Amino acid sequence: MRFTISFCVLAAVVFCGATARAQGPAPAGPGGFNGLDMNMGNLSRLSNAETRSISPENPTGEKGKGGMATEGTGKGASRELGQGWKVSPSVRIKAGTTFTMADITGSGAIQQIWMTPAPINKTRLFIIRCYWDGETEPSVEVPMGDFFACGWGSYGQINSLPVCVNPGSAFNCYWNMPFHKKARITMENLDDKDMTLYFQVNYTLTDVPADAAMFHAQFRRVGKLPVKTDYTILDGVKGRGQYVGTYLAWEVRSPGWWGEGEIKFFMDGDKEFPTICGTGTEDYFCGSYNFENQLTKKYQTFSTPYTGLTQVLPPDIAYKPGQRFGLYRWHIADPIRFKDDLKVTIQALGWQSGGRYLPLEDDIASVAYWYQAEPHAKFPALPGKEQLIVGPLKVEAPKAP
After folding, report:
1. Distance, CA of 140 to CA of 199 (rounded, Å)
2. pLDDT tens digits along 331-348
3. How many CB atoms lie under 10 A from the CB of residue 21?
4. Structure letter (DSSP) for residue 378
5. Domains in the chain, please, with CATH?
6. What does 78-129 look like in DSSP terms, one character per residue?
7. What is the pTM of this model?
8. What percent of the chain is predicted at pLDDT more than 70?
9. How big is the chain by its Cα radius of gyration, in Å?
10. How many helices and strands (H and E) does the chain possess?
11. Residue 308, CA distances (Å) to 95, 282, 300, 301 in order
């Protein structure tokens, strides 16, 4: 009898297991797929995650609340059609004010952001900030154009995995931005004129893993790098995380090639010497030999999923300071992980006579992108309005001997 019962139990277990395999995994629910980290391999998976979107047509992202506006920037164009017909496609942000683009309560992740500003040539004066889980200090604080790896207030097409910049001035990002309790995104207009902003923030409300680190991005600029001084891309980071990207807006202030400098990553107690040291600026951005087209003998722009040189702008006619470049490098397949602290620097280095390196005094701006466990160290103060403006410092004429 004991054998009969045991056999029946075993048969039932085998039958149930076979049935489960035939039917596939159980429907998504508690402990199932949370709808994050999307890729081609998991698009078919069901999830209890809830998709939401914030735009001027649904400023709260609430279910069933889109397209309800009766006032907005499109009211005149929709006057014969009325509610539901693109009454509020954009917002106007007054000079010197800050607009809250998104204010989300719950756990989840921002999965895509699209926006286009007017005017585009003032994007250094439009500041994006992101605050996670009720923090008072931003985890992201970057001029709009530079955040999307498109500095100088000038359009440059970008075809990369986390950032796409498309015609005519469409800024898109796909950085995964998780939050456990709250998310807030703001746009500050530092210009002395109003700006117009079209935008959409697409996100999901779902369970977020306890080990999910928060997205961070920080802007820096030095208008004239002191001679024999490394440019600091990032410093003061404390805690555990991974560095995932660099954008540089580089203005050359001397004739000749400018990209011999090494990038260095000081981590987890490194002092004088770093753990990671590159071999040259164009090498770090996955190019070689001056980014030069071997046929035309000119710079060759390129944009790939992980790296690109997307802007090669001519010298300014008034000041003749040299060319301007926009470069990005995403560490998606090769994140740089740190446990306690991180500092990132790059050298400005060219050539002079006798085959000698020449330390440069270039105008360099940067955005560092990383994930880390909160809390994060307070960012250094954003450069003032005059220091943010794209216009170069005047290059002094050489003094007579």
Report:
1. 17
2. 999 999 999 999 999 999
3. 9
4. P
5. 90-208 (2.60.120.1390), 213-379 (2.60.120.1390)
6. TTTT-TTSSS-S-EEE-TT-EEEEEEEESSEEEEEEEEEEESGGGGGGEEEE
7. 0.89
8. 88
9. 25
10. 4, 25
11. 33, 10, 10, 7
